[in-house]
Amino acid sequence: MQISPSLTNSARAALDHFITQRWLVLGYVVLLTGLFWVPSGSLYTKLYYALMAFPALLGLVIAPRRLAMVVREPVILAFIALAIWLLIGLFWTQSDNSLFKLAKRPLYVFLLFAACALIAGKDERLLLGALRIAAILAGAAALANLLIHLSSNPLASRMIGTGALRNPILTSHVFGFFLTYWLASWLLRDERQTWLPPLLGLPLVAAILATGSRTPLLALTLTCCWMLFMAGKRALYPLAVITLAAGTLAALQPEIWLERGTSLRPQLWNEALRLASEQLWLGQGYGSSFVFNTTQLGYTLSDPHNVELAVLLELGLIGLILWLLMYGLAFLRCLQLRHERQFQLTSALIVYGLCAGLSEGSSFLSRPNENWFIVWIPLALTAALSLAQRQRIITR
User: Fold this and answer.
1) 300: part of which helix (H) or strand (E)?
2) Are 286 and 95 in contact (CB under 8 A)?
3) What's the per-residue H, E or C state across 19-87?
4) Is the pLDDT of residue 208 over 70?
5) What is the mean pLDDT of the chain?
6) Spatial separation of the C-alpha atoms in residues 63 and 114, rounded to whole Å
7) Is 293 helix (H, G, I), strand (E, B) or coil?
8) What are the CA-CA distances from residue 65 to residues 59, 72, 118, 140, 275 (Å)?
9) N or C: which end of the chain has fewer CB within 10 A?
10) Which helix (H) or strand (E) holds 145?
């Protein structure tokens, strides 16, 4: 019995519709909100595999032309070059993990790029709508986390959060990502309900303050400075609010905000640069372990607390150049299309993530976790919207 070609094409079209407009959209919302409610990081990763990575791979298989479309996007092409260099570096890495395990990491990120591109390729409003739904849920999650934290002993500890959230610093990255979304939405006057961004942004501000992390406040301040260029003088208002909030909490909890000083970041970065200079061009290899000796601490650290320094240490100057090229291409695209609100929004998310990564988040290429909110999720969103824009030009 032969199957009619038209029937096969119809089934493929139906499957494609389900993948791009249902399966992946659900997966994107779960990726963005899952850390708040999934009980463990392991389950969160498995949900990513099932709801985003696998359907994205399936979507590329049933429509191979899309793969060519995806890899032609400059930001994704730069990531592929970075991933190839990372794989080459595995020949001299000093990691304790298996090479196969490390080699899979770039694939996880590539499938995020592909998933977002497939959604936006059908309709970029689906991708932006899923982001908006996740941001609404994040505001509610911030409020719930605050209530749980306040029911314990809030002045004696820093808030970690529910679900798969692991520590205050990483938690603040996630809340900061969503606060940046609502901040940019308000600045761009992209809301019919002008009260909605402040309403959902306030619990996110309070949640960040409850984590006791100063990095998001610095990143948000620099993002507001960027938005002065993208959105005008209106960005001065949130700058004032952030300054007031930081000052208030410093007065209420000075031991959290003032006694830690610079947390030995300058000494740590200096030690990291010294280690990087030993293998400057090639790096020590992805996944290599490091020991940073800082005499003031009295113990050693293995994390440089800077994304770019981590890239330099592991992938060398060649890897760092490719890393900066990837970001440069993303910024260039946002500037080329700065008259469009979606690129103004995604540029704010990129700036926030880039600034947050200057003092935290050295796990630059990993399975899905909090660090994806300051690196890969903003970049994937930008690349997907860029691809959708190119498609619109071609079809005109």
Assistant:
1) strand 299-301
2) yes
3) HHHHHHHHHHHHHHHHHHHCCCHHHHHHHHHHHHHHHHHHHHHHCCHHHHHHHCCHHHHHHHHHHHHHH
4) yes
5) 89
6) 12
7) strand
8) 10, 11, 12, 40, 44
9) N
10) helix 124-150
Of the candidates 53, 23, 20, 48, the one whose C-alpha atom is nearest the C-alpha of residue 33 is 48
Contact 306, 357 (CB under 8 A): yes
Q: Is residue 9 included in any domain, yes or no? A: no
C-alpha distance across the termini of the chain, in Å: 42
Class of residue 252 by CB neighbours under 10 A (exposed 0-12, middle 13-18, buried 19+): exposed
Diameter of the chain by CA atoms?
A: 78
Say how far apart CA 192 and CA 189 lie, in whole Å: 8
141 belongs to a structural domain:
yes
- Segment 227-249 mean pLDDT: 81
Residue 101: Cβ within 10 Å count = 11
Residue 53 belongs to a domain: yes
Q: For the whole prediction, is pTM greater than 0.90?
A: yes
Which residues are registered as beta bridge partners of 294? Answer: 299
Q: Which of 200, 158, 156, 150 is nearest to 180 (CA)?
A: 200
Number of residues written out for the chain: 396
The two tokens of residue 107 are 């694939």
Full domain range(s) for residue 289: 16-395
C-alpha span between 324 and 329 (Å, rounded): 9
**What CA–CA distances, in Å, run from 293 to 263, 275, 316, 378?**
14, 11, 20, 33
The H-or-E segment that residue 299 falls in is strand 299-301
Domain contains 202 = yes
- Please determine, for residue 288, whether its predicted confidence score (pLDDT) is greater than 60: yes
Domain count, the chain: 1
Residue 2, pLDDT > 90, answer no
338: pLDDT confidence band, cut at 50, 70 and 90? very high
